[in-house]
Amino acid sequence: MTKTYLIDHSIKLRFIRGAIWSIIGVTIFRGLNLLSSIIIARTLGVKLYGELAILQSTINMLGVISEFGLSITATKYVAEYRKSDISKTGKIIYLLLSFSIMLGAFITIAIIINSNWISKNILKAPHLTSLLQVISVVIILSSLTSTQTGILAGFENFKTIAKINFITGILTFFLKTLGVIYLGLKGIVYAIVISMFLNFLLNKKYINIELKKNKIHIKKLEIFEEFPIIWKFSIPMFLSNILVNPVVWICNLILIRQPNGFKELGLFNMVNQFINVLMVLPSASFGVLLPILSSELKDAKNNFLHYINIHITTYISTVLTLGAIVFSDIIIYIYGKEFTKGYIPLLLLLLLIPILTYKSAIARLIQAKELVWYSFFSNSVWGLILILLTFKLVKWGAIGLSISYLISYLLNFIFFIPFFYRKLNIINFLKQDTLFFLSLGIVLIPAFLGNVLRLEETYLLNLLSIMLCLLFTIKYMTTLYARKGYKH
Questions:
Q1: How far is it, in rounded angstroms, from Cα 58 to Cα 76?
Q2: CA 38 to chain centre
Q3: Residue 373 in contact with residue 380, Cβ under 8 Å?
Q4: Which residue in 485, 484, 393, 471 sits closest to 439, CA to CA?
Q5: Quick one: 208 exposed, middle or buried, by C-beta within 10 A (0-12, 13-18, 19+)?
Q6: CA distance 93 to 102
Q7: In sequence order, what are the residues at sequence separation of 6 or more whose Cβ sits closer than 8 angstroms to the Cβ of residue 426?
Q8: Contact call for residues 122 and 177 (beta carbons, < 8 A)
Q9: CA-to-CA separations, 256 to 52, 125, 270, in angstroms, rounded
Q10: Please, are residues 154 and 82 in contact by the beta-carbon 8 Å criterion?
Q11: How far is Cα 180 from Cα 488, in angstroms, rounded to an integer?
Q12: Residue 3: its pLDDT value, please?
């Protein structure tokens, strides 16, 4: 056996082991979350579901500040140094956890103090003040749990993460279901806070076990030696991430200030929740690649890693998208009659899934190679385009906001992907990757047009897309197997 074969075989085993556990844990967690969101939507109705959406959107927007990109920083640097320098690993872990506590506490207190002003003047919903105060506790808990999860991912302990997701998923489902039945919107807010606290306790327990197993000792007085990673990685990661949730929040605010704004946001939130659940399989399966890419940076241009990271992830997300388009009527039916107007937004946002998956694959390479300042630049342009489009198209409600998202991501994808390929030094893959992505787009077109236009021949167009998908799969797998660079 060649050395290259042994390296790639090791990477395959690590990827498969991590992906299996990640899929199990996240699928259970997200699946139960989807089920609870359906129960919540049907119980609350469109307007109250919109109010829940703006509360969550507000907390998510401010929560990004407290998270500060620390989760991905933890994953990258723990993976990179856990074997080569355990002393450095211990200092990095303590630094990141301390940072997350301080930022989370500061922002939580600031929201509680200013909750009345935020509710009245920004959300235009003063009756949400008390709920905003309660849900603000999620910020410090979210800051800690995301960093903790990043640490566990850096150790490639995806089995433990799956176990935690399984436990918290079940507890969250029952807490939310009971909460909405007995206390309505207030019950859901309480359930979110309690479940996040339980998640924190479980993460804390298993991180301590991992530290003992790897003989890593926390050196509190020496953590400032590792402070440069905050500037080099966390700050650009934070700036890149911070653009996303505030932009989403601003667009939601623009929408709720329209006639029937909360109802339109309720429709959009329903679609967005479903899209997030559908993204579970590609994100859970291939999120495990970041610690592998970080620890095996010398093999980042390896054909196997490239095909797994970009091709296979995008292919899986396209198949999921096609299935959702074909069964879109059933999806809307599950949510109830009040959400029937979410049909077109659902179809529009489903087209985002392959694009977002592809961008996530590129983002993993950018993070592994410490080029995250480029992500900040890309997200800045995306955010500006989305806000401008939202102002222009918001008169169409949830449909207008969905179109704004689709166009902004598509333009960002077209302009920035070639740029990223050059910076990542993988320009030799650009042509084949472009043809690959365009081919997957062609697969989706017949089914999308048939369903969005409600044509009588929709079932035939659905069948055509399925046949094209099968033909593409056969052709691609044949080509992949024939490549000398892939065979050993």
A1: 28
A2: 20
A3: no
A4: 471
A5: exposed
A6: 15
A7: 301, 306, 365
A8: no
A9: 12, 10, 15
A10: yes
A11: 56
A12: 44
Alpha helices in 288-397 (DSSP H): 289-295, 303-306, 313-326, 328-335, 343-350, 352-368, 372-393
| SS3 category, 138 | helix
- For residue 6, the model assigns a pLDDT of 39
pLDDT at residue 7 in the model: 42
Residue 354 identity (one-letter amino acid): P
Which residues, 6+ apart, have CB-to-CB distance to 79 below 8 Å?
153, 154, 155, 156, 290, 291, 292, 294, 295
Distances (CA, A) of 350 to 237, 274, 332: 27, 9, 13
Which two structure tokens, joined as six digits, stand for 122? 């920004």
Contact in structure between 138 and 63 (CB atoms under 8 Å): yes
User: Can you tell me the distance from the alpha carbon of 149 to that of 203, in angstroms, rounded to the nearest whole number?
Assistant: 7
Residue 240: closest CA among 416, 68, 414: 68
- Gyration radius of the chain over CA positions: 22
Whole-number Å distance between alpha carbons of 117 and 120: 5
- Block residue for tokens 């807010």: 189
pLDDT along the chain (488 residues), means of 10: 45 56 67 82 85 85 74 80 79 84 89 90 87 90 89 82 84 90 91 93 90 77 64 67 78 88 87 80 56 50 62 83 91 85 92 87 73 78 93 92 94 87 81 86 92 88 92 76 49
Give the pLDDT of residue 2.
46
Concatenating the DSSP letter of every residue in 369-429 gives TT-HHHHHHHHHHHHHHHHHHHHHHGGGTHHHHHHHHHHHHHHHHHHHHHHHHHHTT-GGG
Residue 178, number of CB atoms within 10 A of its CB: 13
CB 98 within 8 A of CB 227: no
Task: List the one residue out of 439, 445, 444 whose CA is nearest residue 475.
Answer: 439
Amino acid at 67: E
